[in-house]
Amino acid sequence: MTKQLPYSDAELAELIRNGDAEAFRSLFERFIRALVYFGVKLTGDQEESEDAASEAFQKLWQKREDMRGYPEMRAYLFSIVHNRSVNFVKRRSMVKAAHQTIQAEGETHSDSSITTRIIQAETMVAIHNAIDKLPLHHRDLLHKIYIEEQSTTDLAKMLGTTPAHIRTSKARALASLREILSDETLLRSCIVFFFLFSAK
Q1: Cα 182–183–188 angle (5° rounding)?
Q2: For 45-66, how does the pLDDT look when each residue is reduced to its tens digit (9 = 90+)?
Q3: Residue 158 domain-assigned (yes or no)
Q4: Is 139 part of a structural domain of the chain?
Q5: How many structural domains is the chain composed of?
Q6: Residue pair 134/176 in contact by the 8 Å Cβ criterion
Q7: Which CATH number belongs to the domain containing residue 152 in this structure?
Q8: pLDDT for the residue 187
Q9: Where is the signal peptide (predicted)?
Q10: 3-state secondary structure string across the chain
Q11: Cα dihedral 157, 162, 166, 172 sign
């Protein structure tokens, strides 16, 4: 591990804002263990918490020029880990609930009902695979809209823009998604876009 340099908090923040990699490495060493520990306490999952901490530092580096100082950088790191951990726990709970529902229902489904569920499952896989191929800004936007279920107004406030800009960005992201899905079967495409445009 690299020895931490004797930066003050204010000096560290200013150097990072200016793109100093050594200062950023010092910040990483200062917070990585705390962030992972924080994530484990929220999720109970070591690997997920390590990924969340890594993502937090990646996003901080990308937004370093917008940070006003050390306290904001520190708060930003923990907020990223917190938000990702909460979403992880929600997804895990949803998966667990789905498995419990399937087990409880047993063999009561008709063949047509089972087929429908298979199509739905394959469709969701197609959606997520397609979204993963989008540029990062489109992927983040669709995730916030359809997974986190954030409203256009809330997103506009959070990103410091207008609802009209969010709607335009959403339309562009969906247009890119349509291109990726263009080689799917007609039935699947219809299901996918019914889901997307009926979501909200």
Answers
A1: 80
A2: 899 899 999 999 999 999 999 9
A3: yes
A4: yes
A5: 1
A6: yes
A7: 1.10.10.10
A8: 42
A9: none
A10: CCCCCCCCHHHHHHHHHCCCHHHHHHHHHHHHHHHHHHHHHHHCCHHHHHHHHHHHHHHHHHCHHHCCCHHHHHHHHHHHHHHHHHHHHHHHHHHHHHHHHHHHHCCCCCHHHHHHHHHHHHHHHHHHHHHHCCCHHHHHHHHHHHHCCCCHHHHHHHHCCCHHHHHHHHHHHHHHHHHHHHHCCHHHHHHHHHHHHHHC
A11: negative
Q: Identify whether 3 is part of a domain.
A: no
Per-residue buried b or exposed e for 16-42, using 16+ beta carbons within 10 Å of the residue's own CB: bbeebeebbbbbbeebbeebbebbbeb
Tell me which residue range forms the domain holding 34.
Answer: 8-199
pLDDT of 100-144, one tens digit each? 665 665 555 555 555 666 555 656 666 677 777 778 877 888 777
Identity of the residue numbered 61: W
CB neighbour class for 143 (10 Å; exposed up to 12, middle 13-18, buried from 19): middle
Residue 4 CB-half CA count within 13 A: 12
Write out the two tokens for 90. Answer: 């929600």
